[in-house]
Amino acid sequence: MQHPFQRPRGARRPPRAAGLALALSLGGCSWLPWGWGTPTPAAAASPVQIEHAGLLAARSGRAEIGLTLASAATRTLWLSVRFQTPGGEHDCLQVRELAPQSRQSFACPQARLSADADYRVTITAFEDAELLRPLAPLGTTLRFTPADLHAAGQR
Which domain of life does the protein's organism represent (predicted)? Predict the structure, then answer.
């Protein structure tokens, strides 16, 4: 089954409509509908699903990579989200509580983004606040074209 964020390798992007430029407003940032990644096979077993993932364009002109996660769980979960950048110099690790049946956004500010490079995101949900009882991990890889970065104001 193809995940909604998955684009088959070699598939061309559909033409962009002007109305698609802003998909979600998030604290001064806007989702750009590019760079969807490929989720790991464990995605079906995870109590957390990726709703949005990709490039965020801040009003300040600074780009961020980010995602929004949704919980289908009936209990509180604790999430560890690790954004891995090419070279590792701008990696981010965030740990947050996620209420039952809720969603939360995570973002990792970047001084500069690289085109055609892999930005890996690893998500682990835990049953406990001590982060000792992990559930099924989830992950994706984000990748941006030069046109994506230009549209986000990156030069």
Answer: Bacteria
